[in-house]
Design a protein that fits this description.
The complex is a heterodimer of chains A (734) and B (151). Chain A has 18 helices and 27 strands. With 734 residues, chain A is an alpha+beta fold. Chain A folds into 3 domains: 204 residues, Aldehyde oxidase/xanthine dehydrogenase, molybdopterin binding domain (Aldehyde Oxidoreductase, domain 4), CATH 3.30.365.10; 307 residues, Aldehyde Oxidoreductase, domain 4; 66 residues, Aldehyde Oxidoreductase, domain 4. The chains are: A alpha+beta (734), B alpha+beta (151).
């Protein structure tokens, strides 16, 4: 497919769903949020928006439309990426908007916009170089166009707030006036980007571009899509993981209201298609289905726990960090301690359940086509999944990326996309919206893997740490999702935060972190923060145990181990200072602290808690520090850090996916509890960007939420909680 | 046929009286601002006002709403922005993904109508809606902003 750049953009202005460029609500609402009247392109008569390079389109009214390849799922990436481009362009932020790049357009243009996947807190940090380059290139083109118009050297021109000025003559031209001429110039490569000292928009807490429609119900999430002739579907997948569909009795529900079709979906699921989702859901509850449990129908959580426990002392394990010789350290130890921790499977439980709308158009002459409307963390993965399920070429798929009601890693997987296309293929010519019930969502996740961890630590007579052995036993994400990435039995993701490049206590002479891989039949995946979460709980609580065993202050004890990791230490010191670690607390209030490095950022936290005589925990205050290198939008970093504590503390307090008869026991938010308002402490955030690197902010602080609180609980009660969640455990004073 | 008074308009709906209000709003009437999260009144994404009380519409049957006045997020303010709760939400940039926010805003509007000066404990009790992004602290701040009249 060859696309004429100019024509393409012009056409896109006319129809949002026709050519790939969606003009999302961000356009209108961004304008409204800034209190500036929106001016439609059509109102400008002959003038048209012009593409200046690939990252920005400048409209005659000076609107700068920044293109976004990553997915916005609440984390603020859309606004942050627009800030990066706009700053390099010297655009007037008041007139900046954002629009998605359509995955099929990225594909057709040889992935000009790069990777579209949105996970691992990479939205900003992995795009930062090329989107800034794109903004700087656009600025150079606008200057070039102005210089040509005036017949002056480009070097005599400056830019600010979407205006080019010829300094000697003080003549000015607005970007909107220059856009068309600039768009015809070649795009320069390797344009220098600004020094951080010259940033005007990067680093500012500008308002998000996508807030207004979220206040009045106008934001369209994928689950809200309504199309002509659309039917609605729901699905039942084999309740036992790995099981297969044997048969179902469609006749039993054929006469129920609205029911149109009852269809097999692949070899492990069945869908009911009806006029309304509510009808499909009601009918599904009455559908007799026979499953083959594939030999997994007897698996229980207790069986899995037993298998993992065996791994704690197994001879064979993949090594992620080795320094010195822990066996020698342990043999010479004045004091040696040991503890076993565990963390359960967890579900993402995005509030918008999994869903996707698909339409398959049968066309024997030119080949079938597939169109999907999907909430996706990876538009290109959605495209590939739709092509595969539909049996069509990649170039015959059109992907409409809709807003996500939460992602947290779940929507990088495309099981629901494939299913929607498999259903739509059996009802060609009609859009089918497939919505999972909450129960289906809870019981068919890509769960945070279950692990146990045995830690052994040694100290000399002065209480200095001489060795730590961290043995993780549990399920590997890559073994499930991408076995080819397992090398020599090692899943590198398992050692997040616990590898030589990331671990904060490299001054400890003898270190060993290893993993006994113990896989189950349960699907696992990337859950916001991934393995940094459990790894940090295990390590940071154990270090607290060692500090207590040595009779030392937890902060001083850590400082002594951090001589080789000054950036880890700096953020730990920052939170300790802000929290007043050296000052007494109110009676009955206790605190704990911890630090970690993940996703390119250094983080630390202090928690203050009370535990009543009856064992009731109240988390009062969190001080959370982040050094992400640079901060693009401090207000949105605050929001991410604050929210990460809700995610991490909900998991600590309540959440747990358990197995019985090979299937998930929990079904809804009554049995799978998450954090609510009444659980939330005050969260005080501090940013200490030290420069020179770009770290993420969506995930890193989740890892420090639980250990800070667990260490505070110990301070309050003398009890170590080593098995999560806390839920019904007795917190009364030991 | 059931007549429903929603946002001041009467809608004639052909649906089984046992159908939950949520699905009538979303699927029969095509108003998608009210969200589906759990279906068992646990998460609050589907919160609407029924005769001024906040209710979880996934668990209210339409057959019981004969003379009721129903208010959804679409009807909270004429322009979708001018209700004090909406203004405070914008001021503090509460939403992240935004999916729960229709329900959060309807719950907060009902709380403030009944209790113009809620304490933190009142907010904890009334605002039991789930937000997976974790916007709780900004919700609390925004509610206090409304009650202080600073919007």
């Amino acid at each position: 497919m060859k696309l004429n750049r100019r024509h393409f953009i012009v056409s896109a202005g006319a129809g949002a769903f026709t050519l790939g460029w969606k003009l999302p609500h961000a356009l209108a609402q961004g304008v409204a949020a800034q209190g500036v009247a929106a001016q439609g392109v059509a109102a400008q008569g002959v003038a048209v928006p012009a593409e200046i390079g690939i990252w920005a389109v400048v409209h005659p009214d000076d609107t700068v439309m920044v293109r976004i390849a990553r997915s916005e799922m609440g984390q603020g990436t859309m606004t942050g990426l627009a800030q990066l481009v706009a700053d390099e362009m010297d655009a007037d932020w008041v007139h900046v908007r954002a629009e998605y790049v359509a995955p099929e357009v990225n594909l057709a243009r040889k992935r000009a916009w790069g990777d579209m996947s949105t996970g691992g807190s990479r939205g900003i940090r992995a795009s930062v170089e090329y989107v800034r380059q794109g903004g700087a290139a656009a600025r150079a083109m606008l200057i070039q166009a102005a210089a040509a118009k005036w017949g002056v050297p480009a070097s005599e021109c400056t830019t600010a707030a979407s205006v080019v000025t010829h300094t000697p003559s003080k003549r000015t031209l607005r970007y909107g006036e220059l856009a068309e001429a600039a768009s015809k110039l070649p795009v320069p490569s390797n344009v220098a980007v600004k020094n951080p000292a010259d940033w005007k928009i990067i680093g500012k807490g500008v308002k998000r571009l996508d807030t207004v429609d979220k206040l009045n119900g106008r934001q369209i999430y994928a689950i809200d899509v309504q199309l002509p002739d659309m039917l609605n579907a729901t699905i039942a997948q084999s309740p036992v993981f790995g099981g297969k569909l044997v048969s179902f009795d469609a006749k039993a529900i054929a006469a129920m209201p609205g029911v149109r079709h009852v269809l097999a979906v692949g070899d492990n699921a069945v869908a009911v298609v009806a006029d309304k989702f509510y009808q499909a859901k009601t009918a599904m509850a009455k559908l007799p289905i026979v499953w083959d449990e594939a030999g997994n129908g007897e698996v229980t959580s207790a069986m899995i726990a037993k298998a993992l426990a065996e791994g704690l002392d197994a001879k064979e394990a993949g090594v992620g960090l080795k320094q010195g010789d822990v066996a020698v350290a342990f043999a010479a130890a004045a004091k040696k301690i040991e503890a076993v921790y565990s963390a359960p499977f967890l579900n993402h439980a995005t509030l918008e359940p999994m869903n996707c709308t698909a339409m398959v158009t049968v066309d024997p002459a030119r080949g079938d086509r597939v169109e999907i409307w999907v909430p996706s963390q990876n538009g290109e993965a959605s495209l590939a999944a739709a092509a595969e399920a539909g049996g069509v070429k990649l170039s015959d798929v059109k992907v409409n990326k809709l807003s996500l009601g939460g992602g947290f890693g779940r929507r990088g997987q495309q099981d629901y996309t494939r299913q929607a296309v498999l259903v739509a293929k059996q009802v060609p010519g009609r859009p089918i919206k497939l919505i999972w019930t909450r129960e289906e969502d809870m019981q068919h996740g890509y769960y945070r893997p279950i692990t146990q961890c045995k830690l052994t630590g040694s100290m000399d007579a002065a209480g200095n740490v001489t060795g730590i052995h961290m043995r993780i036993s549990g399920q590997s994400i890559l073994a499930y999702l991408n076995p080819a990435a397992i090398k020599d039995g090692i899943d590198p993701v398992q050692f997040q935060s616990m590898n030589p490049a990331e671990f904060g206590y490299m001054a400890v002479p003898n270190l060993l972190v290893d993993h006994a891989m113990r896989n189950t039949h349960v699907p696992v995946g990337f859950w916001r923060g991934v393995n940094t979460n459990q790894n940090t709980i295990y390590m940071e609580c154990f270090i607290d145990e060692m500090a207590a065993a040595a009779g030392k202050d937890p902060l001083e004890f850590r400082r002594a181990m951090m001589g080789k990791n000054p950036k880890h230490l700096a953020i730990l010191n920052a939170v300790a200072e802000k929290a007043g670690w050296d000052k007494p607390l109110a009676p009955g209030v206790y605190r704990g602290l911890c630090q970690n490095y993940g996703y390119g950022s250094y983080v630390a936290a202090v928690a203050e808690v009370t535990v009543s005589p009856k064992g009731e925990l109240k988390i009062l205050r969190i001080v959370a520090g982040t050094d992400p290198g640079y901060v693009v939008n401090p207000d949105q970093v605050d929001a991410q850090v604050d929210g990460s504590f809700a995610f991490g503390l909900g998991a600590l307090l309540y959440s747990e996916i358990t197995l019985d008869k090979g299937r998930v026991v929990e079904g809804n938010f009554d049995s799978y509890q998450v954090a609510r308002m009444s659980d939330m402490p005050r969260v005080e955030t501090i940013h200490r960007p030290s420069g020179g690197f770009w770290g993420g902010v969506g995930e890193p602080t989740i890892a420090v939420a639980a250990p800070a609180v667990l260490n505070a609980i110990f301070a309050a009660t003398g009890k170590r909680i080593r098995s999560l969640p806390i839920k019904d455990q007795d917190l009364r004073k030991a | 046929m059931i007549a429903l008074d929603i946002n001041g308009h009467t809608h004639q709906v052909y649906a089984d009286p046992e159908t939950p209000l949520l699905w009538v709003i979303r699927e029969w009437l095509g108003m998608t601002g009210t969200k589906f999260g759990c279906g068992i009144a646990q998460c609050g994404a589907c919160s609407v006002h029924i005769d001024g009380q906040v209710m979880r519409s996934c668990s209210v049957q339409v057959g019981s709403l004969d003379k009721a006045k129903i208010l959804t997020i679409e009807g909270l303010s004429p322009d979708g922005l001018s209700h004090p709760v909406q203004k405070a939400w914008l001021q503090h940039e509460v939403p992240q993904c935004g999916y729960c926010q229709s329900g959060q805003i309807m719950a907060a509007a009902a709380l403030l109508a009944a209790n113009p000066k809620p304490s933190d404990a009142d907010i904890d009790e009334a605002m039991s809606n789930i937000c997976r992004c974790g916007t709780y602290n900004r919700i609390r701040t925004a509610i206090h902003t409304v009650s202080s009249g600073a919007v």
